[in-house]
Design a protein that fits this description.
Layout lengths: L9 E8 L11 E8 L4 E9 L10 E7 L14 H7 L2 E4 H11 L10 E7 L2 E6 L14 H12 L8 E12 L9 E6 L9 E9 L5 E13 L13 E5 L9 H10 L4 E5 L8
Parallel strand pairs: 12-13
Antiparallel strand pairs: 1-4, 1-8, 2-3, 3-4, 5-6, 6-7, 7-9, 8-11, 9-10, 10-11
Length: 280
């Protein structure tokens, strides 16, 4: 949401993401079709426009309601973050967390790495919002990077399976405009009985300020899981034989070649010449 600030609670229901919008160097245009329903609800349909558009197929659909709302209900009570983090079963720093996501196929640049540390116990997790997000909040009533970071916290439950996670739907979003939204904590509860191994991951997410006030709820978040980089190289494509000669011990760079060979699905075979024997 941009800088058009709305009073009271903003509620979004039935958010469904039907097809991805692939970011590229060229500008991407999205058309938004808004249809008023019973006041104050509006149905919004998002479609990609331009050369890559998929005809009339929508990218996303949702319904939005602005203004005070009595049936949103209070957010669930949670333990204080300092109590939870002190007794958490495991913890992971941001660098390791986003590296693991990248290995699974979810890659986020520095600007979109919105969590600084995460803690987990059973089906509950807490995450600290990165202080760098404070600058992102200045021009938005609901900073998209903060929303992304909140969803990243649910991905913590899928790290071990090694599959790419894609946001499919959010049943309800409740936004209570706070005084300072880009600092604080994210708490996540995974729904019982869900796991990435079963091709989906479900949970509820809350974002709280430093005082513990919940200003954003994401209820019924669903992520779908997809296999990443499991396509075997074509049998008809022989491995490229690379011979490496150097005046230093070059064997450690073999891991770099193997990484790019796997990533680009380009089979290679490495041979190292004896140490310091550049010409033979």
């Amino acid at each position: 949401m941009g800088d058009a600030r709305s009073p009271g609670v903003i509620t979004i229901t039935g958010a469904r993401f039907h097809q991805p919008v692939i970011l590229a160097e060229k500008e991407i245009a999205l058309a938004v079709e808004c249809t008023p329903l019973d006041s104050p609800r509006t149905r919004c349909v998002f479609r990609e426009r331009g050369e890559r558009s998929a005809g009339d197929a929508p990218c996303a659909t949702l319904e939005i309601e602005c203004g005070a709302r009595g049936d949103a209900g209070p957010p669930p009570a949670t333990p204080a973050p300092d109590v939870f983090t002190e007794h958490a079963e495991s913890a992971i720093e941001a660098t390791a967390f986003y590296r693991r996501l990248r290995e699974n196929g979810n890659e986020y640049g520095p600007r979109f790495q919105g969590l600084s540390q995460l803690w987990r116990s059973h089906d509950v997790a807490w995450a600290r919002l990165s202080p760098a997000l404070r600058d992102e909040a200045r021009d938005f009533s609901l900073p998209p990077v903060v929303v992304d970071a909140a969803i990243h916290a649910l991905m913590l439950f899928g790290l071990e399976v090694g599959r790419t996670l894609v946001l499919r739907s959010i049943d309800t979003v409740v936004f209570r405009p706070p005084g300072a939204m880009a600092s604080g904590w994210v708490s996540v509860r995974r729904h019982l009985g869900t796991a990435v191994a079963s091709n989906s991951l479900h949970g509820d997410i809350e974002v709280r300020d430093e005082a513990g006030e919940c200003w954003l709820e994401l209820r019924g978040v669903t992520l779908s899981a997809h296999d990443f980089n499991l396509t075997a190289p074509s049998v008809s494509a022989p491995a490229t034989h690379l011979v490496i000669a150097a005046t230093f011990t070059a064997e450690p760079i073999a891991d770099v070649f193997r990484f790019w060979s796997d990533t680009l699905n380009c089979p290679t075979r490495l041979t190292f010449a004896p140490y310091a024997q550049v010409f033979q």
